[in-house]
Design a protein that fits this description.
This protein is of the alpha/beta class. The chain has helices at 2-11, 13-38, 41-66, 69-73, 80-111, 130-140, 163-170, 184-191, 217-223, 229-244, 259-276, 281-305, 322-328, 346-358, 373-380, 402-419, and strands at 125-127, 147-148, 174-177, 198-201, 211-212, 251-252, 314-316, 334-335, 363-366, 385-388. The longest helix is centred in the N-terminal third of the chain and has 32 residues, at 80-111.
């Protein structure tokens, strides 16, 4: 019986209870420290409330053990009257350390800029589409996380915002979007934004290359033909004239499909955010330099990947890849829908099918934002190979790494189909 008592005292309920609760409150302290620096006040309050409940429950268990018969029956080396004070001392020490750290953490976080940005006056940023969101997130990494307005599963031409998202947008300090030529719904919202909101329109950023929208009256007529030398020359002359003096309504707004344009946005954002939030200016600048290096690498990868494909004809759903084509020397794509919101009619589809057959078009690239019925019909009536190009990166997780990963994979899809 005495051996049992010794076992109970040395490795039994008392020491187990102290070790278990000490471990619990140590982990609770770590949670509080994390909460103080990373979680909203409401969540910190809930953690603290649950910790208090656990403390009360533990004290109740100790009191029950303290009055158990085993205390009177054995364990003379650990008198019951000593167990409670020892346990209370352990819990009090741990909790005191936790609460002290909790109170000190916000001040430490505000003064330590080595691993994170200063939280004072950090601007809240809303971004329209995923590729732009990725560029913004790369610049603000370690300081803040921009809010994404559109997930990319629907076209920005027709997408709308939920009321909750609208409220967030109206409270944002900065909005980064493409511009009126593509985000039609958002254009109306921007007009009603608070005058204190700084609006960054991609198309108005210095250094961003503008290309004219290619579907005008001249092109409509030209598209009905197989293409003679005279027609190609006339089309080239019209292209040069339009590029020299583009009107706002005639601009192709798919700027983000050219990494050189992406570079200009990163440079602009770094400078603008440094002006708004000088406490984190060094972080913005450092992040921008890293992203510019990554964009340079991406540009070289795409140049190598898409080389020697300039003579291969292909077909896309709508004319959203002009910037990529011109940057990397791809052939001008044939287009199914001149206006993506309007389904092509029977005459248009008949013309497209004839051109696909006459020009031996090898690849048809669909887009996930638009219905696949037309694409399926063209695939059925021809030998064209179908692949998907996603100009909005809808299936990628939003974040700093999205832009380079998405655009490189888009280039890889083009290469695999055109060079295969």
């Amino acid at each position: 019986m005495q051996a049992d008592c010794d076992t109970d005292c040395d490795t039994g309920v008392y020491r187990f209870q102290i070790d278990r609760d000490t471990d619990f409150f140590t982990r609770a302290r770590e949670a509080l420290v994390l909460a103080a620096t990373q979680l909203p006040v409401k969540e910190v309050y809930l953690i603290n409330m649950n910790l208090t409940k656990m403390l009360k429950r533990t004290i109740a268990v100790i009191r029950q053990l303290n009055s158990a018969r085993v205390l009177n029956r054995c364990c003379e080396a650990w008198p019951a009257r000593l167990l409670m004070p020892v346990h209370a001392f352990v819990l009090t020490a741990v909790l005191t350390t936790a609460l002290t750290t909790l109170l000190a953490a916000p001040a430490l976080a505000a003064t330590d800029n080595s691993n994170a940005g200063s939280s004072a006056n950090v601007p809240t940023i809303a971004v329209s589409i995923k590729p732009l969101h990725s560029l913004v997130a790369a610049v603000t990494h370690g300081v803040s996380e921009p809010m994404l307005l559109f997930d990319g599963f629907s076209s920005p031409h027709t997408a709308t915002l939920k009321p909750s998202m609208l409220r967030h947008l109206h409270s944002a300090d900065v909005l980064v979007w493409v511009g009126t030529g593509i985000e039609v719904y958002l254009a109306r919202v921007v007009a009603d934004l608070n005058t204190d909101t700084q609006v960054v329109s991609f198309g108005q950023v210095d250094g961003v290359r503008h290309l004219p929208f290619r579907f005008d009256q001249h092109h409509h007529a030209h598209d009905e033909h197989t293409g003679t030398e005279d027609q190609e020359v006339a089309d080239e002359e019209h292209h040069e004239h339009s590029q020299a003096t583009p009107e706002p309504e005639s601009i192709d707004y798919h700027f983000w499909l050219d990494p050189h344009n992406a570079r200009q946005l990163v440079i602009h954002l770094s400078a603008s955010l440094a002006d708004i939030d000088p406490a984190n200016a060094q972080i913005y600048e450092s992040n921008a330099r890293q992203m510019l290096d990554r964009l340079n690498q991406l540009d070289q990868q795409l140049t190598d990947l898409l080389a020697n494909l300039s003579d291969v004809p292909y077909l896309v759903f709508h004319d959203s890849f002009q910037y990529l084509e011109q940057r990397y020397g791809l052939r001008r794509a044939m287009v199914i829908a001149e206006q993506p919101e309007i389904q092509p009619g029977a005459r248009r589809l008949k013309t497209i099918l004839r051109q696909v057959q006459e020009k031996n078009v090898k690849c048809l690239f669909a887009e996930p934002q638009f219905p696949a019925k037309v694409v399926s019909m063209l695939q059925r009536d021809s030998s064209v190979e179908v692949a998907t190009l996603d100009p909005l990166a809808s299936r990628y997780d939003a974040g700093p790494d999205l832009y380079a990963t998405w655009l490189l994979e888009l280039g890889q899809t083009l290469h695999d189909c055109l060079a295969g």
